Amino acid sequence: MAAGLGTRLRPHTLETPKPLLAVAGRPILEWNIDALPKEIEEIILVVGYLQEKIREHFGAEWGSRRVRYIEQAELKGTGHALFACQNQLHDRFLVLNGDDLYGVDDLAELARHDLAILAKETNKSCRYGAFHTDEQGRLLAIIEGGETQPGALVNAGAYVLDRDIFDCPLVPIRDGKEFGLPQTVVLLAQKRPVDIVRANFWVPIGFPDDLEIATAALQERL
C-alpha cells in the first residue's frame, strides 16, 4: 500500500512520495520489497500520490519479481486500498504498509500462517489501536480510542490474508471517510482464526524525526 500523501512528513514529501523517501541510503519501499519471503513472485503496488515516480523507479520488474500497479484514485483508507486489488489477488497474499520498515524473519514467520496480523508489543504509551486476543493468541477485537498502555500489542500493518477477506463488508472509520483494513479483518476473525504474530523489528515512519530513527535502526542491523 503506497498511495498516501505523507502530509505529516512534509516538506520531504512535497516532491517525493513517502515510500521513496530514503533511509540508510535506500527508499523505504526498496527495503520492504527486499524483505519479502523468497516464495513471493509478484508484487502489486497500490499507488496514488506522485505515482509516476514510484512507477518509474520500480518499473515492471524488480529483483526478478513482476511488479504491477493499481491506482487508488480516492484515498479512502487501507481497507479500500486492498479491495481495489481484489480482481488481481488469488489464494493467499501478504499485505504491507509501503512506508513502514519490516524484518525479513518477521515476514517469513507471518507467511507461515494461514491468516495472521503482525503486531508489536509497545514499550510506551501511544495512540495506536491495541489488539485483544484469546488464550491462543488469536485476534478477537481492536481496542481503539484513548491511550494504549505499555505492553499492549499494536498493529504493525502487515497481514497474510486470502480471498475470504473480500466476503467481509468494509468497516467505515473516521466518520465514514475511510475504510479500515484491520477493522475489516476483525470481521474475518469472527469466521476463521486469525493469528497474531509478534514482530521483532518494526519501524513506523510517520514524522520527519522517524527518518533518522529508521536509518539508525537499519544501520544497527547491517
Present the secondary structure layout:
Blueprint: E1 22-23, E2 26-27, H1 28-34, E3 42-47, H2 51-58, E4 61-62, E5 65-71, H3 77-83, E6 92-96, E7 100-102, H4 104-111, E8 116-121, E9 130-133, E10 139-143, E11 153-162, E12 171-173, E13 178-180, H5 181-189, E14 195-198, E15 202-204, H6 208-221
Parallel strand pairs: 3-5, 8-14
Antiparallel strand pairs: 1-2, 4-5, 6-11, 7-15, 8-11, 9-10, 12-13
Quick summary of this structure?
This protein is of the alpha+beta class. It contains six helices and 15 strands. It is globular, with a radius of gyration of 17 Å.
What does this protein look like?
Strands 6-11-8-14 form a four-stranded mixed β-sheet, with helices on one face. A three-stranded mixed β-sheet has the order 3-5-4, covered by helices on one side. The chain has a single domain (7-221), classed as Spore Coat Polysaccharide Biosynthesis Protein SpsA, Chain A. The two termini are 25 Å apart. The protein has helices at 28-34, 51-58, 77-83, 104-111, 181-189, 208-221; strands at residues 22-23, 26-27, 42-47, 61-62, 65-71, 92-96, 100-102, 116-121, 130-133, 139-143, 153-162, 171-173, 178-180, 195-198, 202-204. The protein has six helices and 15 strands.
